[in-house]
Design a protein that fits this description.
Layout (H helix, E strand, L loop, with lengths): L4 H13 L4 E6 L2 E6 L9 E2 L5 E2 L6 H13 L1 E4 L4 E4 L15 E2 L4 E7 L2 E6 L4 E6 L6 E2 L4 E5 L1
Antiparallel strand pairs: 1-2, 3-4, 5-12, 6-8, 6-11, 7-10, 8-9, 10-12
């Protein structure tokens, strides 16, 4: 049984490209299944006879303040699913810090997807107002990474 690594890579790329959850290929007695990694849901359920979500009261003032702050600035979003890294290596300084001025094309972070390190660059000149994620956080396409003024 021979496994074609190139074919597996192409399947993995197609999972991302076409937003698939799972792909299975069977050939000459070999079967390969690739599944998309899904982040755990943030809702917590109590294990009773009927599952009920546990909710905490929301401070509406804080939520509206955050929403207004986000509306005031442009969000830089993740172009793909992966892992967010603020620095090029664990022992290196962060690419950017809150309050730092950046120029168009400056590297802001890395999103690792399938062992490939993808640099996320500033789309315009501005000031990084807020870094929205912790180092090592899982992201999906469209997640907000930074707020820029």
């Amino acid at each position: 049984m021979k496994i074609d690594v190139k074919a597996i890579r192409e399947l993995a790329e197609n999972i991302e490209k076409y937003n698939l959850q799972e792909v299975t290929v069977e050939s000459e007695g070999a079967k390969v299944t690739l599944k998309r990694e899904v982040a755990a849901p943030e809702t917590v359920y109590v294990n009773t006879s009927v599952a009920a979500p546990i909710t905490a009261p929301v401070n509406k003032v804080a939520v509206s303040t955050v929403e207004k702050t986000e509306e005031k600035y442009e969000a830089i979003t993740s172009p793909m699913m992966g892992t967010f890294y603020r620095a090029p290596a664990p022992d290196s300084p962060d690419f950017v810090k809150e309050g730092q001025e950046v120029n168009q094309g400056d590297t802001l972070c890395i999103v690792e997807a399938m062992k490939l390190m993808n640099e996320i660059k500033a789309s315009r000149d501005g000031k990084i107002v807020k870094i929205l994620l912790e180092d090592g956080a899982s992201v999906v396409k469209g997640d907000k990474l930074f707020l820029i003024d």
